[in-house]
Design goal:
Number of domains: 1
Shape: globular
Order of helices and strands: HHHHHHHH
Largest sheet: none
Oligomer: single chain
Distance between the termini: 28 Å
Number of helices: 8
Radius of gyration: 17 Å
Number of strands: 0
Structural class: mainly alpha
Length: about 200
């Protein structure tokens, strides 16, 4: 249960849900409610598939390239920190697109790189390689799916959330998410350094 809760919270914040929601609303501003809902389902499925692939094949990627888990922790944490800084400053790539069919936005840019950016990819690889038992891996996978489903539900209900919170409200929440993300990335880097130096 501890693995599930920890993984769920980490993945929820790492995927910057409120930033994803604001980008989703921007790129679908001229779409109908039914088009938004259909796109939300496609994005959710795309993110789940890509996340699970990264989670399950993380160990093999490390072994192929001869990279240690702690070295990757430091690198992924640093990338995640840069994403957090961009979120707080409000300069993270908005994923704006021109002249594209709404259904074509599911994988690029909404799934990659908006939801699963470089920092998220790194953390998923580290997380997958960190699970020592099959039980932990299954629990972690389920937590990851649940986190993505919650984000998917937010996208599915984006029209309602937009009316309740407004664009400015989403911007404020995104910046708060950035602060949590910065603290999380610092913790990942410190863990990597501590293990690497054997402290």
């Amino acid at each position: 249960m501890e693995v599930f809760i920890s993984t769920f919270l980490k993945m929820f914040f790492i995927m910057t849900p409120f930033f994803v929601l604001s980008v989703f609303l921007t790129v679908t501003k001229e779409a109908t409610i039914s088009e938004r809902k259909a796109l939300a389902i496609k994005v959710t499925i795309s993110v789940i598939i890509m996340s699970l692939i990264l989670l399950f094949f993380g160990k093999h990627i490390f072994s192929v390239f001869g990279i240690t888990l702690d070295a990757f922790r430091i690198g992924a944490g640093a990338l995640l920190f840069l994403s957090a800084v961009d979120l707080i400053k409000g300069s993270k790539d908005s994923g704006k697109v021109e002249d594209k069919n709404i259904s074509e936005l599911a994988v690029v840019p909404l799934a990659i790189p908006v939801t699963i950016g470089p920092g998220t990819i790194g953390i998923l690889l580290v997380m997958g390689a960190s699970f020592k038992t099959k039980t932990a891996l299954i629990s972690g996978s389920f937590a990851l799916i649940c986190a993505v489903l919650v984000i998917g539900l937010m996208l599915y209900s984006s029209t309602i959330i937009e009316k309740l919170v407004g664009k400015q409200g989403l911007l404020v929440i995104s910046k708060i998410t950035g602060l949590f993300l910065a603290a999380l990335s610092a913790q990942i880097v410190f863990t990597g350094i501590k293990n690497f130096l054997g402290l």
